[in-house]
Amino acid sequence: MSLPVSVYEPLWIGTRPLGDYTVASEDYSHVKKAFGGYWSAKFEVEAGVALAEEWLISGLGRHVVVSNPALDVIWEGFVDRVNVTIGAVRIGIGPLLQVANRVTAVYTPSDPDAVPAVTGTTTPLAAIDDADSQALYGILPKTINVGPVSAAEATVIQNSYLKRAKRPRTSQDWGSTKSVSIDVQAECKGYVHWLNWTYEDETEGTQDADVKIKAVLADTPNSAWLSFDTAHVDVNTLQVPQQEMSNRDAMTVIEDVVSRGDASYNRWLFGIYAGREARYEQAPDNVEYYQRLADPALAVVTTGQGDVDPWDVEAGKWLILSDLLVGEREPASLEEDLRAIFIESADYKDPWGLTIKGGMVDEVSQVLAQYGLSGMR
């Protein structure tokens, strides 16, 4: 079996298609998560020297769309790291998201010569940018805490950090065993990982959970190319704190909102999917998939009894092991059913390999999160 992989130039540059690859499924894998949606993927293709070098030079950030044989999109994201094997050498560049080309330094003004030593209020310096790096890799912000120093020292550290972090890291490994082929391996991440900026809001009080999520998504510094479709951010009137002044990144802020559920302590899910569509919705209370332990093929089927290919299985759904505990009294809810698996992560790899990592709704943790006590267990 093979899967179509379409590659485009990075979205901050344009939408020009660069190539379609028919990747053998043993050379492809992906992870989908109930929180996050399209999380990560990896694919490998054989190439000539020219194509391999071109991937090393320009591969980071490329937009990747993976389809199933029916040409339905099953994963979408961007290239975060490129590894190329040529002969006895393996060269890597990335991860892209470790690049920082907009740096803010937070420091605590300090005068160590004073007796006693004097420290002031934690203060941010104005962000500094590297335009050349941003043109190549998009805007990648980073806030660093440099501790108790003077403003001049904080400025030196901020400039030094930007100079070091504005370019992606590289690695080179050489071994005495020579590869017979030239391979390009692309390690990819979903666009949920671009929720990497510090989100701040000085407004006191509360707001609806869905309103806050939309506000966070709209705050992206990459709005010129990264606009999240929020048509499927469902209404949730649970009141959550509006103020954000703790230097938390956007993903952490959204994860905190999602962890609170709703006023009835129902679980809610969040993810970024095809077309940068953001989905924020209540977790389902119906069964989507079934699987028989006695089935030699271990096939997953839908409620209509049609087989589901392993690459099509989605996270955030319920699966029932239909031939387990046969004859036992049916529990009152899926959460109490030992046969039921809530799919937190669907990991596809190898031609027919699928690993499902399950979990269940934990009402206690949602109650604690709503009261700001999510660190307690």
How do the helices and strands line up, and which of them pair or pack?
Elements: E1 2-8, E2 17-24, E3 28-33, E4 35-46, H1 49-58, E5 63-67, E6 73-86, E7 89-93, E8 102-111, E9 118-119, E10 123-124, E11 128-129, H2 131-137, E12 141-149, H3 151-165, E13 170-174, E14 183-189, E15 206-208, H4 209-218, E16 229-233, E17 239-241, H5 250-259, E18 268-273, E19 277-282, E20 287-291, E21 300-302, E22 307-308, E23 318-321, E24 340-349, E25 353-359, H6 363-370
Helix pairs in contact: 4-5
Short description:
The protein has 377 residues and is α+β, with helices and mostly antiparallel strands. It contains 6 helices and 25 strands. It folds into 4 domains: 2-97 and 169-193, no CATH class; 100-164; 197-283; 287-359, no CATH class.
Characteristics:
377 residues; 18-stranded mixed sheet; alpha+beta; 25 strands; 4 domains; 16% helix
Structural description of this entry:
This protein has 377 residues and is of the alpha+beta class. It is 16% helix and 39% strand. It has six helices and 25 strands. It has an 18-stranded mixed sheet that branches. A hairpin with an 8-residue loop joins strand 20 (287-291) and strand 21. The two termini are 45 Å apart. The relative contact order is 0.14. Residues 373-377 have low confidence and may be disordered.
